[in-house]
Amino acid sequence: MNIEKKINFNSSLFTPNSSLLTPDSSLSQKTAIIRIENVFKIYGRGETEVKALNDVNLIIEQGEYCSIMGPSGSGKSTAMNIIGCLDRPTSGHYYLDNIDVAQLDDSALAHIRNKKLGFVFQQFHLLSQLSALENVILPMVYAGVSNSERRDRATEALGRVGLEKRLNNKPTQLSGGQQQRVAIARAIVNRPVVLLADEPTGALDSRTTQEVLDIFSELNASGITVVMVTHEPEVARQTQRIVWFRDGQVVHSNMTPSDLTHMQ
Ligand SMILES: Nc1ncnc2c1ncn2[C@@H]1O[C@H](COP(=O)(O)OP(=O)(O)OP(=O)(O)O)[C@@H](O)[C@H]1O
Ligand SMILES: [Mg+2]
Questions:
Q1: Does residue 142 form part of some domain?
Q2: Of 132, 150, 155, 214, which has fewest CB within 10 angstroms of its CB?
Q3: What is the CATH number of the domain that holds 138?
Q4: Whose C-alpha lies nearest to ligand 1, atom 31?
């Protein structure tokens, strides 16, 4: 199997070149794994200017299971993209595991994203020409994991989400819930400290939604910090803490599931 060939992989794009990337010894202590300070994200200029994030401050501690809610257009995905190092703030600071990510160049940012973060999206974003196993192997190719180790780790990750019998299926041969479980296996295979999920259950029925939430709870119990955007109160209720966005701002940073019951 040659995934590099199938995806036209160029390893030189992913070579880390920053001394900021040495492992962080503070990981064992309780720590603010995500710290956002006075973050603005402004799209457009003049009359078309949109303040997608308008002075956001947020701390998420290591080990939390947190959901982000709020109306459509309130800035949830914009915030998640910044937390996930897929985008940069217009101004303000973002510290991921005490690293000021604004100081990193693109290659260092790609490395930190691959090493510390896992992503799950509403639409799964699996590569259709690759099997479940190959999709899960992919982030390890970028991370430089040895060939011999990749297959074992991908198989283990797929086992963790209950897909040990589907290793060779392509995405089109899997149900929506199964595809999302492949995406979760892909997100955790590099052993991230934070799992980020933007409406991960938005395309799933209620039974499959619960399967995905059960996996998130297990991952969180094993020590992974989980941050999830959702529109569904019954999904948010299963997390420990709810952050509420409105008009590009955090208007409640520490709601509990019972607060949510009062609000509905
Ligand atoms: N690339 C972009 N260019 C211009 N405006 C953008 C861009 N991305 C987002 N916006 C605007 O920023 C605001 C916040 O968008 P965002 O996608 O973060 O909202 P959201 O809370 O995730 O909404 P939804 O619940 O619908 O997913 C919106 O007004 C949106 O139109
Ligand atoms: Mg969104």
A1: yes
A2: 214
A3: 3.40.50.300
A4: 73
CA-nearest of 127, 118, 198, 97 to 161 is: 118
Structural element, H or E, at residue 61: strand 50-61
pLDDT tens digits, the chain, 264 residues: what are they? Answer: 566 666 665 554 444 433 333 344 444 456 899 999 999 999 999 999 999 999 999 999 999 999 999 999 999 999 999 999 999 999 999 999 999 998 888 888 888 898 899 999 999 999 999 999 999 999 999 888 999 899 999 999 999 999 999 999 999 999 999 999 999 999 999 999 999 999 999 999 999 999 999 999 999 999 999 999 999 999 999 999 999 999 999 999 999 888 877 665
User: What's the total number of domains in the chain?
Assistant: 1
CB 38 within 8 A of CB 55: yes
For residue 199, report the distance from its CA to the centre of ligand 1, in Å: 14
Give the mutation target among 43, 122, 232, 247 for probing the ligand 1 site: most ligand atoms within 8 A of CB: 43
